[in-house]
Design a protein that fits this description.
The protein is mainly alpha-helical. It contains 12 helices and no strands. It has helices at 2-28, 32-43, 45-56, 62-65, 72-98, 109-121, 123-136, 144-155, 157-161, 169-189, 195-210, 223-249. The longest helix is centred in the first third of the chain and has 27 residues, at 2-28.
């Protein structure tokens, strides 16, 4: 048990300190390309931390086991559908309530590269390493996604420092916790295939920009983001109900 907590501490230290080191490096270095590289390292700190921690654990198989051909179609298409529909409906409801035209956002090449990087940058660390580690430490499984969601929210401190997130902190925390339960369900229904959460993370960031849900895309209006949170809560409750139903059926089978 103490060994597991030691690795948990190591993982969190690297995941949280590496972005800070990268921010300092970006303020010192003037070369834009090198600054961009450090920004990429900063974003990938959870995955980098998981890989380093697994190295010290002398566990060479866990990383490979995260990826599977099982349920691969579901791991790709279900997250895309969920992300697309919630974002589209959030923007549509917002436009109907405020009686404004439905508009799409614009994504530059650099933005698309950054969004694409999120496919591998975080989820190996959060849902691939941290969540399973908490499970084997006998923490009540129903609150594990909540714990991961709060840690995930706190980890974004470096983006707030760089003014890269314009959503109020409390709303962002709620969003992280709700989404963490969706991530957890995706892992469960794809037999812990990490591709499902990687796809969802990428699709979520992509459609957030495509449908211009961020406050910065709506003259500071946070209502599209609030509506998105409500819709994601409904998705979370739907998944929770499906999970409870399956748990009742399983013993009979």
């Amino acid at each position: 048990m103490r060994t597991q907590y030691k690795y948990l501490t190591l993982f969190l230290l690297i995941a949280f300190l590496l972005p800070l080191i990268c921010i300092v490096a970006q303020t010192i270095i003037s070369n834009n390309f090198i600054r961009f590289i450090f920004y990429g390292i900063q974003a990938a700190s959870p995955t980098i931390s998981a890989i380093i921690t697994l190295y010290f654990q002398k566990d060479k198989t866990s990383l490979i086991k995260m990826f599977s051909k099982k349920h691969l179609k579901m791991a790709i298409f279900l997250p895309i559908v969920i992300a697309c529909m919630t974002m589209f409906l959030a923007k549509l409801i917002f436009c109907m309530l405020f009686k404004i035209n439905f508009t799409f956002g614009h994504i530059s090449i650099i933005q698309f590269i950054i969004i694409s990087w999120t496919f591998i940058a975080e989820e190996i660390g959060w849902r691939g390493y941290l969540e399973p580690l908490l499970k084997i430490n006998h923490i009540y499984k129903q609150i594990i996604p909540c714990i991961v969601g709060m840690i995930w929210c706190l980890w974004h401190y470096h983006y707030f420092l760089q003014k890269g997130i314009d959503v109020p902190v409390l709303l962002f925390l709620i969003s992280c916790i709700i989404e963490s339960y969706i991530y957890s369900f995706l892992m469960r229904c794809t037999d812990n295939n990490i591709i499902s959460t990687m796809t969802y993370h990428f699709a979520w960031n992509l459609f957030l920009h495509i449908f211009a849900v961020n406050p910065s895309d709506n003259n500071g209006n946070i209502f599209p983001y609030i509506i998105l949170n409500i819709l994601e809560t409904l998705v979370m409750l739907l998944f929770w109900n499906i999970k409870k139903t399956n748990n009742k059926i399983s013993p009979i089978q």
